[in-house]
Amino acid sequence: MRVVIAEDNALLREGLVLLLTSAGHEVAAVAASGPEVLPALLEHRPDAAVLDVRMPPGFRDEGLRAALAARREIPGLPVLVLSQYVEETYAAELLSGGASGVGYLLKDRVGRVDEFLDALERVAAGGTALDPEVVTELMTRRRDDPLDTLTPREREVLHLMAEGRDNTTIARLLVVSDRAVSKHIGNVFAKLGLPAGDSGHRRVLAVLAYLNGG
């Protein structure tokens, strides 16, 4: 996998380079400031981009803006955004253009190497990888909506679906059968008025579209 990294913190940037190359991936380019990001993405057109939200010169949302601009120029470009904190507005804006090939993780996930690499691979394959804390924020930001009709177990299943987990993983994490997971998912779709497609990827897109108000 060819990856472009955008991170202003030199230590974390070099750590990401070492982590990805050690895992057999190629780092096509690195960017240390906001203005460097879009040109690097357009020049190298990587299989995935790993971007910090806040970058110089303003340390506001330069990385996110570059990611959104790149996805307009390169439709479907897989983007994994890293953030120091859960920034609900940024997460919602990233998801507003569609959840295909999108990830939003807190930076402390990078230290959990297997989780980080798994998330990057899911995003590169066109899937979704959302930090559990981000999903919690998105699921609780609205009141008086159909989410209130879900049972605690159905909310757990929806939470894991939004993270990008497949049925087998959900069953293992919740210590239930695959059949039980399928039943819960069917109930979730019915209560939220969403089409219950067979594809895990399609289901995640539908759920995220709902959570984003789309």
List the keywords.
214 residues, alpha/beta, Rossmann fold, Arc Repressor Mutant, subunit A, 14% strand, globular
Description of the molecule:
The protein is α/β, with parallel strands linked by helices and 214 residues long. The chain folds into two domains: 2-132, Response regulator (Rossmann fold), CATH 3.40.50.2300; 142-212, Winged helix-like DNA-binding domain superfamily/Winged helix DNA-binding domain (Arc Repressor Mutant, subunit A). The chain is built from ten helices and six strands; from the N terminus they run βαβαβαβαβαβααααα. The chain has helices at 10-22, 34-44, 62-73, 88-96, 113-124, 132-140, 152-163, 167-174, 178-192, 200-211; strands at 2-6, 26-31, 48-52, 79-83, 102-106, 128-130. It is globular, with a radius of gyration of 17 Å. The mean pLDDT is 83. One of its GO terms (molecular function) is DNA binding. One of its GO terms (biological process) is phosphorelay signal transduction system. Residues 2-122 form the Response regulatory domain. InterPro entries: CheY-like_superfamily, NreC/VraR/RcsB-like_REC, Sig_transdc_resp-reg_C-effctor, Sig_transdc_resp-reg_receiver, Tscrpt_reg_LuxR_C, WalR-like.
